[in-house]
Design brief:
Radius of gyration: 13 Å
Number of helices: 0
Order of helices and strands: EEEEEEEEEEE
Strand content: over 45%
Number of strands: 11
Structural class: mainly beta
Distance between the termini: 40 Å
Length: 116
């Protein structure tokens, strides 16, 4: 099993920044990718950003240039730096781990609200 614990969500004004953290523990061997997803009310859960073990990253088009996914291997933590936030970024953000290209694990989610 893999355990994921997110933190860092909150309320921020448009144009502001937040950094989400995802602490990874448990059977972390063979994790091949980490990702952040989000789900707004009434919408499907969507991929926001992902990072592979070789450091390759991928972003959803609407967040390119504003969000950055990165990791600290020493701390077993993955981050999502979110800048220039917009009201449409409001959602519950979930951390995801893919293990052995097969199993997926999810965190409990953290609420991000962008509003004036």
């Amino acid at each position: 099993q893999v355990q994921l614990v997110e933190s860092g969500g909150g309320l921020v004004q448009p144009g502001g920044s937040l950094r989400l953290s995802c602490a990874v523990s448990g059977n972390i061997e063979r994790i091949n990718a980490m990702a952040w997803y989000r789900q707004a009310p009434g919408n499907k859960r969507e991929l926001v950003a992902s990072i592979s073990t070789d450091g390759g990253t991928n972003y959803e088009d609407s967040v390119k240039g504003r969000f950055t996914i990165f990791r600290d291997n020493a701390k077993n933590t993955v981050y999502l730096q979110m800048n220039s936030l917009k009201p449409e970024d409001t959602a519950v953000y979930y951390c995801n781990a893919e293990r052995a290209y097969r199993w997926h694990y999810w965190g409990q989610g953290t609420q991000v609200t962008v509003s004036s």
